[in-house]
Amino acid sequence: MNYSASPRGRIWVGWKHQVVTVHLTKCTEQLIHGDVLAKSGNFQTAFTAVYGLHSVETRRPLWTDLIQLSTVINPVHDAETKDFEGCIDIADLAEIKSCGNFFCWSNKGQGNARISSRIDRALGNIDWHNKYVDAVVDFMNPGLSDHSPLLLNCRVEWAAGGRPFKIFNYMATHVDFLKIVQDGWAQRCTGSLMFSLWQKLKVVKGGLKTLHQKEFARLDEKIDLLRQELDEVQSELANDSTDTELQHKESASPHLTGIDIELVREVKQLSPLAAENLIQPVTNKGIDEALKGIDVNKAPGIDGLNGLFFRKAWDIVKEEVYAAVKNFFQTGHMLRQVNNIVVTLVPKIQNATQAFSKFSAASGLEANMMKSELYLAGVPDSVAQSILAKIGIPRGSFPFKYLGVPLSTRKLSFTDCKPLIEKTVARVRSWSAKLLSYAGRLQLVRSVLFGIQLYWCQIFIMPKKVLKEIQRICRCFLWTGAEGNSRKALVAWDQLCLPKVCGG
To answer: What is the rounded CA–CA span in Å between residue 397 and residue 403?
Structure first.
């Protein structure tokens, strides 16, 4: 919802958290833009939800935002943003196939006073249409709104397979919970201490799966049924709309905080006795305290077990856990299968953001949380959301620029390298009016233009199309002093790039 940009919140976006992850990157009064990534990994796209205002003047910022979000190769003139058709042409968009209701908006009038119109559209660019050829948009019944919700179905075949095991707190309250753990712990296992622990936990998880299927299956369907009953009751009630008052934000400090010298001087150093205590052997008491520091309501780890499981079954499982943890600290070897379980026993650091405040007081520098971005990789979505909520820094997405170059998780494309080409063209344009000689242009190509290219080539494997485009710009500037196409080359470029001893 875009209540942060519009008090009326005209745009609502909904998705299934179990299926996809949605990262919203732009929110204005007239649009919400974001990225959608399927948790199965076989679907990824960007989307923009639009609610256009009613006058030509108020819609102009919308066209500008849409053009900025699209991939524009040619420069955009102001005249091209005057109407909707210009925006569609520039962004290269086309309407997606639709089904369902023809009219998608009405004034909710009765009888002859009712006005209906088809003012909503679902659009995609050519690449999107080619990738999802069977996609269709369903114009559904409007419900309480005056607009019909648009349900986009890309008809992608999701990866088959069962869901991974995950323990829920309500399972630990069942009367058969401890019996299942006892039965699993009664199994005789051979191998190392950690391998034995892993095998017993594996048997316990099998018993808990059976318990869940027997006692708690199809809870989502029951919840959906209760929600439908709630919707029917709410539709009969009067809609009392109340506006919640926003809390006033504290004004920023009008002066720059200096360095707190006293804080720097008060930094304590470990005494020899305290340093020696850090390397003391791990005790059962220390493991117990680590377990108590884990919130029982935290999401389970990748292994599916959370802190509540160990607390409830601690009298049964503690001896094996003691032995396995101590063995790890003595040998430094951690079994791959048990890696996630042992990490579960490490308590979380509370108030991690206090480090920013102490750093600011000590150095006189303050991090701007709203201008900072946090990049996460290989982290479950539940853990990522918890980290973002604790730190308060927006989540960034790839690709992004660092020290003038784009960082990406995939191979660079021609579009990713456009800043390099634009920087090269900008240098050539700044030199074009200086009436340089051939020797001067040659020196600039070798020392400046090639230097910019080499800086990127030391970091990335450049696409051939980018290298050829840079060579074209350098060749044109060398022979004509301009960036445009030229047929005045006196020597082939391959021959020109040879070492001087070879005739280059």
So the answer is: 17
Running DSSP on this structure, what letter comes out for residue 447? I
**395 phi and psi angles, rounded to 5 deg:** -85, 130
Q: For the chain, first and last CA: distance in Å?
A: 62
* pTM of the predicted model as reported, rounded to 2 decimal places: 0.31
The closest of 471, 463, 460, 469 to 414, measured between CA atoms, is: 463
Residue 404 within any structural domain of the chain: no
Beta carbons of 43 and 49 less than 8 angstroms apart: no
Q: Is residue 173 part of a domain?
A: yes
- Cα–chain-centroid distance for residue 354? 25
Q: Is residue 312 domain-shared with residue 338, that is, in the same domain?
A: yes
- The average pLDDT across 419-423 equals 82
Number of domains in the chain: 3
Helix axes 464-480, 418-432, angle to 10 degrees: 0
Q: Which domain holds residue 269?
A: 169-230+257-344
What is the rounded average pLDDT of the residues 354-371? 75
> What's the confidence (pLDDT) of residue 278?
72
Q: Report the C-alpha gap between 499 and 492 in whole angstroms.
A: 14
Identify whether the C-beta of residue 100 lies closer than 8 Å to the C-beta of residue 62: no
Mark whether 97 and 140 lie in a shared domain: yes
Judgement on whether residues 148 and 177 belong to the same structural domain of the protein = no
pLDDT of residue 55: 79
Whether 66 contacts 91, CB under 8 Å? yes
pLDDT of residue 489: 65
List pLDDT tens digits, range 110-129.
766 778 788 888 888 877 87
Looking at the DSSP assignment, which residues form a beta bridge with residue 100? Answer: 139
CB neighbours of 436 closer than 8 A, spacing ≥ 6? Answer: 444, 481
Specify whether 179 is located in the same domain as 144: no
Q: For residues 132 and 152, what is the distance between their CA atoms, to the nearest angstrom?
A: 11
For 400-437, the DSSP string reads: EEETTEEE-SS---TTTTHHHHHHHHHHHHHHHTT---
pLDDT in tens, 226-250: 777 766 665 554 344 343 333 333 2
The 8-class DSSP code of residue 171 comes to G
Residue 162 lies in a domain: no
Cα–Cα distance between 202 and 189 in angstroms, integer?
A: 11
- CA distances 123 to 31, 49, 93, 193, 199, Å, are 13, 10, 6, 58, 52
pLDDT of residue 235: 58
Query: For residues 105 and 10, what is the distance between their CA atoms, to the nearest angstrom?
Result: 13
Q: Which residues pair with 27 in a beta bridge?
A: 32
**Cα separation, 227 vs 119, whole angstroms:** 30
